[in-house]
Each structure stands twice: as structure tokens, then as C-alpha cells.
Amino acid sequence: MTPDSSPLLILASSSKYRKELLSRLGLPFVTASPDIDETPFPHEKPHETALRLACLKALAIGRQYPDAIVIGSDQVAECAGEPIGKPGSFERAFEQLKKMRGKEVRFHTALCVRNGRDSRPDDTLQKKTVETAVTFRNLPDAELEAYLKTEEPYDCAGSAKNEALGIVLLEKIESDDPTALTGLPLIALTTMLRQCGLSFFPQVFR
């Protein structure tokens, strides 16, 4: 694979966590926040919601930058068949953690890449959902409260930052992609970006 002129790479997200993850690949990119309705459809399963929203994000930014490679991603957590979103407050986060303690929670992290260099980019989307099974420890209320007041993870689905102090709440993590739980599955993403013709080691082709 010989790289040609590098296209604009856009992360369709305002998430600081996804931005940090993408920066690990060493590729120049910009971010853009898509304006979409993230409300789940009635009777829509969590993994379906995650994939639909990831694609909507990539398509929305792709319309603004038709020649770019656009990355869309979304994550929905699920506990006992019910979706778990971003808490937004201490009270909601506390209720989430109490509900999840001692249980397995599945995090559905969806990825969609739109390649503006394809002849029909909206019809050739690359997409995948990576599932992570997380078992939460059965901890007392006092520890849950102390964690929330220390880290304030109110912008994270599931109310726990596994990449930081939230790891102490977890008993086990099972996934094919270790970065999926944080919000952007880099193993799947690098495969998709290679399909778009991007190189992570351009010096090899000099």
C-alpha cells in the first residue's frame, strides 16, 4: 500500500476520551461535533442504537466535508437488558453504580468510517460493533460515593472510568479490543483506516 496525498481525517466527536485515543495513532486529524438526535428508537436494542448513531455521526460530518475520511463512534452500555447512558450528575451516577454492582454490564462500542475518496462513500461505509463485558465488584455504598466524589465520571456511560480510578470498581473486563471500553476501538479502526489507504508508517514508503 503506497500512500498518496493524505486526505483530511476527521473525528466526528467532541469526546476528549476519543480524541486522546485517536491521537495515539500519530495521524493528523481534526474534530467536529455532529448535530444529530441521539434518542434511541422505540424497541431498539442497545447495540443497534450504538451502530446507528455511529453511522449518523460519520454521515453528518461527511456531508460537511465530502472528501474527508470521517470517523464516527458511539457507545451504549447495557445492564440486564436495559440501556445505561451518561449519568450527568452525582445522583444518577450513584443509582447506576448501585444497579450494576455485582453484575455483568455489556458495553457496545460502535465504529463507522466514511471514506470520501470512494466513488459512493455513503454506500460503502465500514462499520463494526465491539462488545466489552465488564463485571462490577459488589462494593458498599460508601465506596461508590467516595469514588464518584473523587473522579466525577458524569460524562461516561456506566459512571466509571476504567482508564483511571474507576478500575477499582471492576472485577473483570473481557473484550477483543482493549480500547473499546474507553470509547474508540483502535484495533478495528486501524483496520478500517488501512482500507482507506492510510499508512501509520509513511517513512516505509519513502
Automatic annotation (TrEMBL):
<dbReference type="InterPro" id="IPR029001">
    <property type="entry name" value="ITPase-like_fam"/>
</dbReference>
<keyword id="KW-0963">Cytoplasm</keyword>
<protein>
    <recommendedName>
        <fullName>7-methyl-GTP pyrophosphatase</fullName>
        <ecNumber>3.6.1.-</ecNumber>
    </recommendedName>
</protein>
<comment type="function">
    <text>Nucleoside triphosphate pyrophosphatase that hydrolyzes 7-methyl-GTP (m(7)GTP). May have a dual role in cell division arrest and in preventing the incorporation of modified nucleotides into cellular nucleic acids.</text>
</comment>
<feature type="site" description="Important for substrate specificity">
    <location>
        <position position="75"/>
    </location>
</feature>
<dbReference type="Pfam" id="PF02545">
    <property type="entry name" value="Maf"/>
</dbReference>
<feature type="site" description="Important for substrate specificity">
    <location>
        <position position="17"/>
    </location>
</feature>
<keyword id="KW-0546">Nucleotide metabolism</keyword>
<feature type="active site" description="Proton acceptor">
    <location>
        <position position="74"/>
    </location>
</feature>
<dbReference type="GO" id="GO:0047429">
    <property type="term" value="F:nucleoside triphosphate diphosphatase activity"/>
</dbReference>
<dbReference type="InterPro" id="IPR003697">
    <property type="entry name" value="Maf-like"/>
</dbReference>
<comment type="similarity">
    <text>Belongs to the Maf family. YceF subfamily.</text>
</comment>
<keyword id="KW-0378">Hydrolase</keyword>
<feature type="site" description="Important for substrate specificity">
    <location>
        <position position="163"/>
    </location>
</feature>
<dbReference type="GO" id="GO:0009117">
    <property type="term" value="P:nucleotide metabolic process"/>
</dbReference>
<dbReference type="GO" id="GO:0005737">
    <property type="term" value="C:cytoplasm"/>
</dbReference>
